[in-house]
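Hi everyone,

Forwarding the result from last night's run.
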Amino acid sequence: MHTWSDIAKQLLSDDGGITSIEYALIGSLIAVTILGAVATLGSSVGNLYQRIGTRIAMALG
């Protein structure tokens, strides 16, 4: 039978959860970076396509 001190020692020595938290933090930082880049570039890319479409319509019409 395990005593409370044995359970506490086992929980304190287990570092598997810490690794999972680190991976989750890294993943969330990558996701925030990607979302920021998409938000920043999204409007400029949309404007670029709009200008291209306008110029093509002017060339054809």
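Residues 16-60 form the longest helix (45 residues).

Cheers,
N.
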